[in-house]
Amino acid sequence: MKTEVQTAQELKALRILTLTMTVLGVPSLIAGLVFAGVSVSFLRDAQQVQGTVVALDWRGDAAYPVVEFTPVGGVPRKLRDSAGSNPPSYEVGERVEVLYRPDSPGDARIKRFLSLWLLPLILGGIGLLFTVSGIVMGLVSRRRRKARSGPAGLGSAVVSGGAYGAGHGA
After folding, report:
1. What is the mean pLDDT of residues 110-124?
2. What's the mean pLDDT when you consider all of the chain?
3. How far apart are CA 120 and CA 43, in angstroms?
4. How many secondary structure helices (H) and strands (E) does the chain include?
């Protein structure tokens, strides 16, 4: 049977874990939402043109496609995608859709899921998981503290010794 000290230590550890999960989860969730908002804003303002993969930029073990595109009424530009892969996702010479901001053609991305949503999904997903876990652990911890203190918070003697405590007869 667990001693009261062991139970108190477990509750303290659960409170620390709850706080840690929440402190890590909430900022990550907020960051994920902010980056999702940035992607939505980008998509709302973006123009779409065709581009061509002109090179693969190998960094470490991953190949990042380098794409040449020409904004409407502008001069040709190159972009290096932020998502690399191995094996490469694209081949040199392959045609791709490019999204860019008309007022800032240097802000361009290949039109694909990873380029637009990877960071918001990772941060938001981790943030959501940690935040929900922290909340659930907090509720469990609270329930255990209430159960340990007995009805209406009168202490553990009420649970084990009856309404008048141990040693008093009726």
Report:
1. 90
2. 84
3. 14
4. 3, 5
